[in-house]
Amino acid sequence: MTELEYGVLKGVGGSTINRLLKAGFTTVEAVAATPARELAEKAGLGAETAEKVALLALMHVDPGFVPAMEVLQRRRMMMRCTTGSKELDRILAGGVETGSITEFIGEYGSGKTQICLTLSVMAQLPPEQGGLGGGVAVIDAEGTFLPERIVQIAAARGMDPKEVLSNIFIAKCYNSDHLSILIDNLPGIIEEKNVKLVVIDSIISHFRGEYLGRENLSERQQKLGNCLHRLMRLAETMNVAVVVTNQVQASPTVVYGDPNRPTGGNVLAHACTHRVYLRKGRKNTRIAKIIDSPSLPEREARFIITEKGIEDVEEAGD
Ligand SMILES: Nc1ncnc2c1ncn2[C@@H]1O[C@H](COP(=O)(O)OP(=O)(O)OP(=O)(O)O)[C@@H](O)[C@H]1O
Ligand SMILES: [Mg+2]
Predict the structure, then answer these.
(1) CB–CB of 274/287 below 8 Å?
(2) Distance, CA 158 to ligand 2 centroid (Å)?
(3) 318: pLDDT confidence band, cut at 50, 70 and 90?
(4) Tens digit of each residue's pLDDT (9 = 90 or more) over 254-266
């Protein structure tokens, strides 16, 4: 990250820099992750100045065409967060990665929220222990991200529940416009609290509830796409892991096998880097399958939901 100070963005005056700092933009990356329109609003800049600042910040962060070797080196900055289950980590090539959006899809009770809760605890472990060594920001659209469960998971894993709670920042989300506002606020909290994992549980429920009927579908998809686009930019520019959950709907055309398909259509499918489909197995077990990833093969993993959050079936002694 580059501290925002006079001189780093060539041609931007001291008073503009001061306004940005006052509005909470303390790094160039945070400026780059914010649309110009919003910079104008938050820092009280003129439209033209905001456009210029946004462009310069983006140029600072994005060096344009670079040799593939450099891309590889940059990807090495990528970190992975263990999910709490070695099996699930294995199919994710080590865990949930920073710089990407990972989507967990499944029907009710399939374990989406339990995975998010466990990740929120695990992310705080130091990298040597499989964590990201940072805080967690959660956008809870369903009201199910319960601190009591975080306490239980942390304690069962031998971590200090109080400390774990103090590094998780939860925002309840009441509707899709609110989601958009909360996403706008993410760069600030990411910087301020050294957040390394952003969780959105779920990304789709408000959109599904608010935009009923075919005639509203394109507007819904446009707004959803905009939210995802900003999340992707955030993941990349601030090197955080973004995890979103998604629901399923039964496809009427499927006669044999599982009729459930992810909701959110192409917009969600394209925005998420890795997609993991969850289904219920026997007892408390769950089966996770990679369904769409540029780098991961389509493998399956089994895990179980316990007091530790999620863990391997074997470890739970099943
Ligand atoms: N402390 C616990 N110990 C064991 N199992 C638990 C515990 N807490 C929750 N579960 C199990 O987790 C399951 C619920 O999983 P989860 O809340 O992750 O579902 P979800 O995929 O988020 O569903 P929804 O779409 O309704 O949000 C239930 O089957 C419940 O029995
Ligand atoms: Mg849930």
Answers:
(1) no
(2) 25
(3) low
(4) 888 888 899 998 8
pLDDT in tens, 274-315: 999 999 998 889 999 999 888 888 999 999 999 999 999 987
- Residues facing residue 4 across a β-bridge: none
Q: Is the CB of 114 under 6 A from ligand 1?
A: yes
Domains of the chain by residue range: 14-61, 75-312
- For domain 14-61, give its CATH number from 1.10.260, 1.10.150, 2.40.10, 1.10.10: 1.10.150
CB of 309 shorter than 6 A to ligand 1: no
| Residue 107 Cα to ligand 2 middle (Å) | 9
pTM for this structure?
A: 0.84
Judge if the beta carbon of residue 111 lies within 6 A of ligand 1: yes
Q: Is the CB of 306 under 6 A from ligand 1?
A: yes
Determine whether domain 75-312 maps to CATH 3.40.190.170: no
Answer for the pair 225, 271: CB distance below 8 angstroms, yes or no: yes
CA of 309 to the centre of ligand 1 (A): 9
